[in-house]
Amino acid sequence: MTPMIRRKNVPYVTPWDLLDHEFQNLFDGFLRQEEQTAAMDFYRQGDSFVAEIELPGFEPKDVDLRVYRDHFDVTAKRQSCQESNDRQHFVKERTATSFSRSVRFPEPVDPDRVTASFQSGLLKIAAPVAAAQQARVISLCDPEEQKTEPKA
Fold first, then answer.
1. pTM (2 d.p.)
2. Could you tell me the CA-to-CA distances from 120 to 58, 73, 105 in Å, in that order?
3. Distances (CA, A) of 103 to 25, 49, 68, 100, 118
4. Distance between terminal CA atoms of the chain?
């Protein structure tokens, strides 16, 4: 006598189920908004914070950099290729792309001394740490003494 092997209930899958699954995957890709992020290295080198951000396919004119004492914002926008009536596209994968990122500095920086360069799709930002502000000493005076001073 052969032992009986019991199998778990395996759902029956029809070709229509497979087709429905493929259509769901196809439309999910179109409808899902994927966030564009760029690879970044952020480190301290001496008395400066340095950020290196990869922006392949962008030109310097496409990038907007704004630096504040406590953070910086990078925005990059690239337009798609221009439509032309004399072209018949067979594949068109280059589309308009945008990227935006805000990074907070661990310490305040001096925005007036920040330098940035863009070469071969790599944005490099060097932000010197701001000098520590010296406390201002305020001398206190007695309000009673001010009242008794003769007026000229």
1. 0.61
2. 9, 20, 25
3. 34, 11, 10, 10, 18
4. 126
pLDDT in tens, 78-95: 877 666 677 777 777 777
CA gap 59, 12 in Å, rounded: 54
Domain 35-80+95-131: which CATH number of 1.25.40.10, 3.50.50.60, 2.60.40.790, 3.40.109.10: 2.60.40.790
CA neighbor of 111 nearest in space, from 73, 71, 69: 69
User: Do residues 147 and 75 make contact, with C-beta atoms less than 8 angstroms apart?
Assistant: no
Residues 6+ apart with CB under 8 A from 72: 51, 65, 66, 102, 103, 105, 114, 125, 127
Q: Which two tokens stand for residue 37?
A: 């992020």
Phi, psi for residue 134 in degrees, rounded to 5 = -80, 140
Q: Which helix (H) or strand (E) holds 56?
A: none
